[in-house]
Amino acid sequence: MEQDFVKIKKFLDENKINYEVIDHEPVYTSEDAARIRNADLKQGAKSMIIRSNGNFYNFVLSASKKIDWKKVKEILGNNSASFATPEEVIKNIHCEIGSVPPFGNLYDLKIYCDSSLLENEEIEFNAGLHTRSIRMKAKDWAQCVKPEIVDFSK
Fold first, then answer.
1. Tell me, what's the pLDDT at 4?
2. Number of domains in the chain
């Protein structure tokens, strides 16, 4: 939603991070986003909200990868982990699934980043809206968001 985009932009500006805003037609999948941004799928930062024992976490990985649930459960030290429902995502971060930005820190969620994402020089992600993306250096994102970097993809 627009207020989330403004929140992200303000956070990046306050941290003096260079970024580019990309306005585009609505996209709902990582593949469509890569196509419309004219970028490699692996540069997409796929941001997922995961529920485990009533708590929510932000897991971010390269759009070319899939979540390995066994690894996620090991990271969380729990046998219960699943995607948050669309309603839970809206309630917790005010965004629809498919537009979740990789900024769980702005919503008091712990962020885990798969190491595969940081192999890219630049990353791109939906910024709280299906029609607006941000492109920025992966190292700048990691520096200001401070995710826990782990391996949870396959």
1. 85
2. 1
